[in-house]
Amino acid sequence: MERINSTLLTEFILTGIPYPPQLRTFLFGFFLLIYILTQLGNLLILITVCVDPQLHARPMYIFLGILSIIDMGIPSIVVPRLMMNFTLGFKPIPYGGCVAQLYFYHFLGSTQCFLYTLMAYDRYLAICRPLHYPMLMNAKLSTLLVAGAWAAGSMHGALQAILTFHLPYCGPNQVDYFFCDIPAVLRLACADTSVNELVTFVDIGVVVASCFSLILLSYIQIIQAILRIRTADGRRRAFSTCGAHVTMVTMYYVPCAFIYLRPETNSPLDGAAALFPTAITPFLNPLIYTLRNQEVKLALKRMIGGTGTKSEV
């Protein structure tokens, strides 16, 4: 009977994030503005990297362009559905839509983890092994590495979606979250979820821990190399190049570790933490890169016909 009932479930209801009713219009407008600016900012970075001849063939900016694509994708999966929480009435999400949302979120999210690792490795080679950098990291190799990151991310997302939705769901169908994510959906399963929770912890833990460890190792080597640079201007430029990446990694990994790598709880802080990788970090990434990266700023000036001339590069 449990199996029959589970096949009848055709939709979920996302409760969203708690908020005072008087702030409904403000929050709707706020997240709409954040979403629009996120798409425009990342699109601008992507176009700049693609059209500027000094950027689009360099591995660092190939990675940056892919990051912009991901940062447009993740909010598009989550934020429109979040905004529906600030309108009147229940807005159910179809069962298939919930499956797709969970898959694409973990697909893009894990791909972003792998991409951050590649970006750290690229900076390690550029700063610690500058003479060998053109041979060790070129446009062809960086493209292959990005393809590998996409493939690994797709497999991770598929594994999590299959493990989550092979379980029977026989009601209730109210997901106490603002999007279909693993911990919130598993709480509704009409079966033992201990195996799922263990696999999720191990799988996500391996991805997060291995990527973060490689990034940390790369930056230990980078910092040591920067400290050996004799000129203050050289150290400043090296730190500026790496500072944006370190900021992004911190803002992404800390909330993810808080959500997935701790004992199961139903804390209101989970929703607040999840807003960082889904809405806030994608919005801030273009600002961080344009404000801290001199080459991107000069490329933007060249593209819009400003005063950034070749003599400035």
From TrEMBL:
Gene3D superfamilies: Rhodopsin 7-helix transmembrane proteins. It is a multi-pass membrane protein. Keywords: Cell membrane, G-protein coupled receptor, Membrane, Olfaction, Receptor, Sensory transduction, Transducer, Transmembrane, Transmembrane helix. GO terms for molecular function: G protein-coupled receptor activity; olfactory receptor activity. It comes from the Eukaryota. The chain crosses the membrane at residues 26-49, 61-83, 103-121, 141-163, 204-227, 239-261, 273-291. GO terms for cellular component: plasma membrane. Putative odorant or sperm cell receptor. This is G-protein coupled receptors family 1 profile domain-containing protein.
